[in-house]
Write a structure and sequence with these properties.
The chain has helices at 3-33, 37-40, 53-63, 66-97, 103-112, 122-132, 139-142, 149-162, 165-173, 178-189, 191-207, 210-215, 224-229, 239-274. It has a domain at 64-230: MetI-like fold (Orthogonal Bundle), CATH 1.10.3720.10. The model is unreliable at 270-275 (pLDDT under 50). Helix 1 (3-33) packs antiparallel against helix 14 (239-274) and helix 3 packs across helix 14 (239-274). It is an all-alpha fold. It is globular. The chain has 14 helices and no strands. Residues 70-260 form the ABC transmembrane type-1 domain. It is a multi-pass membrane protein. It is found in: Cell membrane.
Length: 275
Amino acid sequence: MTPSLRVKLLGGGLLAVGAVITLFPYYWLAVMATNTTSDIFTTPPKLTFGSHLFDNLAEVFASIDFFGSLLNTVIVAVATTVLVLFFDSLAAFTFAKYRFPGRNVLFGILLATFVVPTQLAAIPQFSIMATLGWVGDLKALIIPAAANAFGIFWMRQYCASALPDELLEAARMDGCGFFRTYWNVALPVLRPALAFLGIFTFISAWNDYLWPLIIMVDSRNLTLQVALSQLNGVYGTDYSLVMAGTLLAILPLLVVFLIGSRHFIKNIAAGAVKG
């Protein structure tokens, strides 16, 4: 066996082990969702699928407004993702390619917000939402998340390295204004970074629990994560129901990740070929 073959086999083995470790929690989630709570706590643990999936799902649908909260979560996640992609990329493009008074100071303040825990903003943010009359409304979940420091920083770094100044200068010579240059020249180049940011933002908005729990006082506007928490009983928890609801909740995330990651890899490969 040649040394190069040993390296390939070792690399393949490590990747296989990593894949098993990564995928096992999803397999275990599916196993628990198809069994009863008593089956989950058997010793040794049951690692095979059961026959109670549809019974558990029916109980989930009877216990919470699953589809209503699912619709609320889709609205919040999609609207948040669209707004973040637009505002963060626009701000990043400005920071990366335009010089204006106070640019470095503003970007430094933006970076400083990374060290501030998000929990510290809950009280003043709630006060602002109460003043606007948005408590219990989906706008209170969408508007505060319409832009974030991480997205601006990520897009700014990518824009600075991937978008050549000569391309922008050529656009200006052709008569393009600021917004047309951003929309027609910058955005096509930034697609790989936008794909990553879109996946990251959608998953974060979908899984958000603390802020929706605080602000959504109206039970009709609950998001999916808050609704699923209601499956926890006062004196006990039926884990099979929780796992069945969680299994349904992560399916849209898997679809978004698969579609978004393919788009991300496709654009990176296209950029590499063009380069």
